[in-house]
Amino acid sequence: MTTHGEPGSVGVVATSTVRLFSDSDPLVLVSGATLGPVDVAYETYGTLNADRSNAVFICHALTGDAHAAGFHEGATRPGWWDNLIGPGKPLDTDRFFVISANLLGGCQGTTGPSSENPETGTAYGLDFPLLEVADFVTVHRALLAHLGIDRLLAVVGGSLGGMQALQWSLDHPDELAHAVVVASSSRLTAQNIAFSAVARRAIMADRQFKNGQYAAEGTSPAVGLSIARMMAHITYLSEDAFTEKFGRAPQFETSRRGFGIDFAVESYLDHQGTAFLERFDALSYLYLTRVMDYFDPFSNAGALDRVREHPVRYLVLSFDTDWRFSTEHSLRIVRHLESNRLPVTFRELKSAYGHDSFLLADPAYHATLKAYFDRALEDA
Amino acid sequence: MINAAGLRLDLELIAGQVFPGSRVLDLGCGTGTLLAHLMATKGCSATGVEIDPDKVVGAIRKGVPVLERDVEEALVDIDDESYDVVVLSRTLQTMLRPEFVLSQMGRVAERMVVSVPNFGYLPNRVRLMNGRMPVSKELPYAWYNTPNLRFTTLVDLEDLFARLDLVVDRRYTYSQAGRRLRMYGRLPNLMAGAAVYVLRPAR
């Protein structure tokens, strides 16, 4: 891990916020609903080159945020994709200009269901409109317009982030040269939806959820949200990763057999659930998981018409131990792209760590991304 | 042998079989040398298939679209007649099911280019007669570490083409040193170290 000022780190960064849509000029969603104002939190790293050909947009996953790289003032932990972004790293900030934004419906600076509804003066709660991945893309594009960038070298994302990269490439292929889709899916399976359903039930059945108005009521569905996170976290790791990390190790030296935290793995999950409460919001969790459930871009008639006109080059990566979005999910994307004659590169990478591998610095994974990005920049 | 463009001679010959603007599938594309050449010089669109991870990264670095998959699995996912040319360069002998691979190649493209080492090459026969498995420039491995699973002579291979209704449009044969042989009929089965076939499915 790098720290402030060490080679490889972008150093100290700060999140900016910009109002991209207002009451009078609202965001129009795919559903037809409108939303305003919309604020977006974002960070950038590196420098846009003279011909504006080196811009790479990073899309975060379900619980990510705008802070992808470097350190916030006084922080000891870097951004969530710091191992990828920085001088000399695969997204070398001496050569690439990297943009990262918190997505619409999120809770870390960008407008979401816990933001204030201007009509009521309290949180939107369940009055917040349902979203689609294409709505995330609309807001990302508005941010780029604000930054004066009309074309991207690449859009890169893992998991839900990969869905955004894919949607963006299908809807606006003339605006990007490459889409990098990692550990992602073009259509959730029944099992995927089932896990999301249990997570949402845990949140909504929490008596403190108060039909989504918990902030106004001065409560918080903390139990529900932490259970949702604990369960989801199990699906992010492989069985081998759990075995390697914890095995059947007891949490305490002297056995206290009961219904508390007997095993180390229970303590770990408990910590994951509790730590999550500090950085995430229950309503955002509901809305964003629902977006994933309905994502199915290839089912739309003519979904690939535009990208066939303006071919985007694709890199699709999966990890062999990922059972959240298995390799079969990635191959489904590859089949749709290849059969539409789009240039697509695919690798299934070996990793012991399951879905979360896309956030880790596996050498083969990073060598692949480095080779791809280096070439993309040469071709730009 | 390498030509001025840095292409292996059989790759240069294969490249000569591809019309400008073609859509080309290269099974066992290695680091993507042939496809990068075709993309750069003939405006071809390309897909490579390669199972060796290091070679896949090499192809990615060259900007060649490559699928890191087993050839048999990758072929099954490809639509009928969706490529103009499908290439199998010195890879058939590593396939577990060469018959299946050849018939699938005929399904996905109207033109096939297949290059193979010739097990019937005279020095191989001499070595076998002396009681030793052939090891040569074309077959540089010992029996216990070779990636080659299927050994064929040119004559046996041509029998399989016929059985699969694959028509041989052209056959180019080479000496061990990589020189083109100007000989016809069954003589190359004895004298050629390797051959390149241009085939089409009879449909």
Q: Could you give the topology of this structure?
A:
The complex is a heterodimer of chains A (380) and B (203).
Chain A: E1 16-21, E2 27-28, E3 34-35, E4 38-45, E5 55-59, E6 97-101, H1 133-147, E7 152-158, H2 160-171, E8 176-182, H3 190-204, H4 214-217, H5 222-236, H6 239-245, H7 264-279, H8 282-294, H9 305-309, E9 313-319, H10 327-339, E10 344-349, H11 363-379
Chain B: H1 9-16, E1 23-27, H2 33-42, E2 45-49, H3 53-61, E3 66-67, H4 71-76, E4 83-89, H5 98-108, E5 109-117, H6 122-129, H7 154-163, E6 166-174, H8 188-191, E7 194-201
Parallel strand pairs in B: 1-2, 1-4, 2-3, 4-5
Antiparallel strand pairs in B: 5-7, 6-7
Helix pairs in contact in B: 1-2
InterPro entries (chain B): Methionine_synth_MetW, SAM-dependent_MTases_sf
Protein name (chain B): Methionine biosynthesis protein MetW
Domain AB hydrolase-1 (chain A): 55-360
Features:
heterodimer, A: about 375 residues, alpha/beta, Rossmann fold, Rna Polymerase Sigma Factor, Chain: A, 2 domains, eight-stranded mixed beta sheet, two-stranded antiparallel ribbon, globular, B: about 200 residues, 7 strands, Methionine_synth_MetW (chain B), Methionine biosynthesis protein MetW (chain B), SAM-dependent_MTases_sf (chain B), HAT_MetX-like (chain A), homoserine O-acetyltransferase activity (chain A)
Describe it:
The complex is a heterodimer of chains A (380) and B (203). Chain A is of the alpha/beta class and 380 residues long. Chain A has helices at residues 133-147, 160-171, 190-204, 214-217, 222-236, 239-245, 264-279, 282-294, 305-309, 327-339, 363-379; strands at 16-21, 27-28, 34-35, 38-45, 55-59, 97-101, 152-158, 176-182, 313-319, 344-349. In chain A, the strands form two sheets. Chain A has an eight-stranded mixed β-sheet with strand order 1-4-6-5-7-8-9-10, sandwiched between helices. Chain B is α/β, with parallel strands linked by helices. Chain B has one domain (9-118, 148-201): Rossmann fold (3-Layer(aba) Sandwich), CATH 3.40.50. Chain B has helices spanning 9-16, 33-42, 53-61, 71-76, 98-108, 122-129, 154-163, 188-191, and strands at residues 23-27, 45-49, 66-67, 83-89, 109-117, 166-174, 194-201. In chain B, strand 2, helix 3 and strand 3 (66-67) form a beta-alpha-beta unit. The model of chain B has no long low-confidence stretch (mean pLDDT 92). The chains are: A alpha/beta (380), B alpha/beta (203). Chains A and B meet through helix 10, strand 10 and helix 11 of A and strand 2, helix 3 and strand 3 of B. Chain B: This is Methionine biosynthesis protein MetW. Chain A: Residues 55-360 form the AB hydrolase-1 domain.
